[in-house]
Amino acid sequence: MVIKLFDRHSIFVCVCLLAAAIAVSMALNIENRKGGAISAVSSQAAPSAFQPNIGTASAEAQSIPEPDTAPAAASVPTEEVKAPANEMRAVWVPYMSLDMSKSDDKSEAAFQKKFDAIVSGAKNCGMNTLIVQVRPFGDALYKSAYYPWSHVVGGTQGVNPGYDPLAVMAASAHKAGMKLHAWVNPLRIQTSATPSILAQGNYYNTWKSDPSKAGWTVDCPNGKYYNPAYPQVRRLIADGAKEIAKNYDVDGIQFDDYFYPTQDASFDKSAYDAYCAGASKSGTPVGLLEWRQGNINALVSLVYSEIKTVKPNLPFGIAPQGNVQNDKNMGADVVSWCSARGYVDYICPQLYVNFENPVLPFDTAAQSWRKMVVNTNVKLYLGLAVYKSGSDADSGTWKKSNNILARQVETGRKASCDGFMFYSWDYLNTDQTKEEVQNVMKMLK
């Protein structure tokens, strides 16, 4: 009897244990099926930051998420690079675009009509600023106490056009809600035969006739230039910039990339020899290139300070060449301008290259300039070559795509640049550049 009861009890216990084991096993299998994908990924070691990401792709291949739990990668939108607030979108307006010298009608009304068309066209292309050349050849498209009237508006240098072109342009730009920067070529007086006649009061003529001012201006095979080695020359150029800042409602003043026109030592041999003779008495003279850079730095610093004496908040900027070595060869110490105080408020390298340039690809150049501008008070704008779009320039590489400028804008924004300047107005509306301009306009709206 006892044995029989024990056997029945044992059978009952075994049946219960077996049932429990089956239940636990089923529960574990269900859980594994639910979390199998996560286990496959988590079993992989995290890729090291110092090693290539090897093996991650295969782990992800083992982990195929169900459609209702994870979206496909292709459906994740890419983050767009937005334009920064107050982004500079400027176009250069060279003196050729303003030229009235060959027009029968040189009146203020005719000039106003010409410039109004520029304002309207530039604004329609998404521009917010005009960089207008007002001193192309040691002259002035405005009433100046230092420089003669430009042949661009008067027909012949020194002839008063009967109105003030810069005042007209500033008013027209501001009426349309645009800004205007006065573009100055600091050293150039004449190139080849342009202008064909220099006014009697042009400093080239008055200084050439004075033996005490020998060397202040220089005749080169390609033209006539001021020599920045002399303090009096630097003072003239600075006073001219100050005059614009004081008398006109401009939103900025800009120098272009024309500094020393040649590397030939004969350009300023007398001045450099005099410097060496004096410096040798107390030390060792610096080389010609470094000395020239010092002269240009003295000029730029003086211009900057003179502008600030009349309008402390008026921006002064320079648009040097995109190739830094070329800049140095011309006496332009762009590294100092980008890092030290008291030179410029903005820098705009002329990056007239595309992404396929073998010497200086655009993206590489943009990043180099971005790294160079370490003074947080200096804004970085990028100069873009509208004129090359759709052309045979650079071995035809500008014809390979119609969105090069748009990609350059995107690259500049990714590099945290402050805006762009396009060269030039005349190329914003041509058959050659039409597609490129339309595509970049989409980025500027």
Automatic annotation (TrEMBL):
It comes from the Bacteria. Keywords: Signal. The keyword Methyltransferase does not apply. Signal peptide: none annotated. Pfam families: GHL10. Residues 57-79 are annotated as: Disordered. InterPro entries: Divisome_Glycosyl_Hydrolase (IPR052177), GH (IPR017853), GHL10 (IPR003790). Residues 87-390 form the Glycosyl hydrolase-like domain. This is Family 10 glycosylhydrolase. It comes from Caproiciproducens galactitolivorans.
